[in-house]
Amino acid sequence: MGWEEIQVRGYSEFVRTAQSYHGRPIFALFCGDKDAEGKSWCPDCVTAEPIVRKELHNLPDESVFIYCLVGDRAYWKDPNNEFRRNLKLTGVPTLLKYGTPQKLVEEECFKAELVRMLFTED
Amino acid sequence: SVQAHKEEDGPQKTMEVNRFTPVPASYDYDLIVIGGGSGGLAAAKEAAKYEKKVMVLDFVTPTPQGSSWGLGGTCVNVGCIPKKLMHQAALLGQALQDSRKFGWQFTEEVKHNWMTMTESVQNYIGSLNWGYRVALRDTKVTYENAYGEFVGPHTIKATNKKGIEKLYTAERFIIATGERPRYLGIPGDKEYCISSDDLFSLPYCPGKTLVVGASYVALECAGFLAGLGLDVTVMVRSILLRGFDQDMANRIGEYMKEHGVNFIRKFVPIKVERVEEGTPGILKVTAKSTAGEQIIEGEYNTVLLAIGRDPCTRKIGLDKVGVNINEKTGKIPVNDAEQTNVPYIYAIGDILQDKLELTPVAIQAGRLLVRRLYAGATTKCDYVNVPTTVFTPLEYGACGYSEETAVEKFGEENIEVYHSHFWPLEWTVPSRDNNKCYAKIICNIQDNERVIGFHVLGPNAGEVTQGFAAAIKCGLTKEQLDSTVGIHPVCAEV
Which residues are noted in the entry as FAD-binding (chain B) (predicted)? Predict the structure, then answer.
């Protein structure tokens, strides 16, 4: 069946979407919001996104890739935002395998080898 | 010679031979480390710093109960880390009781949920497993989740869990395969008993537990299980904590007894049967006295064996390459440079004969060995005055000689022991024991009363001992200790 991508914005939409795909491997990339020209306020996210996208073809069959915009810079900087509190995210970009402790944070997302390892290995 | 297959690298490069360039004896790797535990990973990461081509092989043979775990070895998965976290869980239970005397008011009865604790602990361990894999990949160390064994000179066979075999060659090898819990060899032991390999990921609360053994593993596990509110019995064949200062060992045992742990001394199990299925079920244990013919029986939900650990050296093909092992214990004798009798094969960690079985020792040995191999260093691992801590309910920290060993080595008339009980300030208000915490130092009279042994029994023993270990390494004498002003009010000032 291959893999599919869902794009969401904000914490509630993310959780709803992840829950609806319960049972399938779920990978998620969290980035800062994009402006009208499609550019994110988060420079590391701008660097990471194309690198992650280039490795998506390695995703196992049946996987779901959730591309999640977390919010604007002010929301992200708030130490109590829901992503930090509930998902324990510490930075953007974060690429993770939902439901496992496996994740790559910030510059780790720049390394294609690590992204591939996250997507393909147990 | 042997062909090596590297699937990702594509077809084998042909080696050019001509009259001007000698053909190197080209191995697949500079270094292959067998075992991805504390020692193995430290050595591999260090070697990668010197741009060596390194491979780590790590494989966990599942326990008889089916437990398994990820990269990181015993300490991370089924040893120090989960043990300390569960010990902390038990201490927090005690703290909750104490807190009422300090004014905290809560009306609900405080209960413990095994699954909540275990899930949190396993989650943390999972993040460590992942962290190691990222670190290895990032430093270009090849990691294979496969069982490594020697098949010939400079050659090992790696078998993954699907049974697929690959051969690899290396210039040098480090064996860091560690140990696994020993079983009793009695009917029912493998079918019904668990070990520390199973305990920290047990998917149900163990309930009423019999711990067989008197090792620090046995006492630490019995200690935190009792601290979480479970009915715990420890069955001891002879003495507690063999190899440790016996006066301290007995104080630990007394404290545990007074705080709800049952002890059955001088008995060994001879049979374990299942009375009732379930998670947990009910097991019946039959035991025989070591001092006579008396037989006793008891029923428990869980039987935890902690009678010792055996090195994983019997099935890794050491005979194929001529590495000597101690046939009786399985341990590998090495020189002071961690080299086996085969010059290109080294060994580190718990499998070494006559060396301390501690994570920091394995890490230090691994790093120093690699620096000597690839960075021209000469420093060898110092195995003397290594501090340790046993995380029983009353923690015990030690560095240097036990009283018995000091007497044996220096003679009773040449050593002086200074000791003191102390009552931690934090224990006063909640009326906890005022005569249990204890500290002693053993001094060598003939050497300026140099401190050759340090022992402390009390809260945060590990934190207290670490600093004193550094002082002992610098040659601390009684006079220097006396002239050091204490910090008040802390236990360490004693």
Answer: 84, 148, 350
